[in-house]
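Appendix C reproduces, verbatim, an entry submitted by the partner laboratory led by Prof. M.T., so that reviewers can inspect both the input and the predicted structure.
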Amino acid sequence: MELTGKTAIITGGAIRIGRAITLALAKAGCNVFIHFGCSSDDAEKTKLDAQAFGIEAVSYPADLADEDETNSILPEALKNFDSIDILVNNAAIFPENDTFNSISTLAWNKVFDVNLRAALNLSKSFANQLPNGIQRKIINIVDARIFRHESDHLAYRLSKKCLWELTNILALELAPHIAVNALAPGAILPPPGKDSEYLERIASKRIPLMKYGNMNQVIRSVLYLLDNDFITGETIKIDGGEYL
């Protein structure tokens, strides 16, 4: 896919990995529709930084836990752009109290609403937009930790595991005109409140390549999936071998 002149929706596109993807697409000549939840200041900065590459950028707030707000994203994007060529389902929440014994029904539902249902609804709207039959791409951001069974972050793990399975199902369902792939980052960014020493400890103890990753590796993987028109239903793990 030639990115110049195309348009992408990036959920959670104002901060962290979402911001990096947004700016990489903008740099490649792609217009961007930046969804955000609470990060209004970051969204404005990301929008301005994207516009500096000479493309059109729009930011839009929506609570992905609210189905009506989620369903407003695609129509709002189409008010600003003729069609949407790329959907990056990146937004996610990562609650602290998320174990078998601690997770509440309310928290469980919110995790699945944001991390899974929103991606499903957006993918459906994306696939059903007019005109039909043109080549489009969906990239889902999952998590490399889903490839190892551990008991922490129960709802988060399960929601990302389901998003990974949804990637495979949609790759079949939406072929031949929409390719659907996933990225599964590992130790790329420290969690909020942690620093690079946190990643260094993980790298020295658990990662075969003995180093942690960076945003450039994520960006190159996104651009590779968008450039290659003969890949669908695949997941690229960016984890240094941690989850082999």
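The beta strands are 7-10, 31-36, 57-61, 86-89, 136-141, 178-185, 235-238. Additional entries are available on request from the coordinating office.
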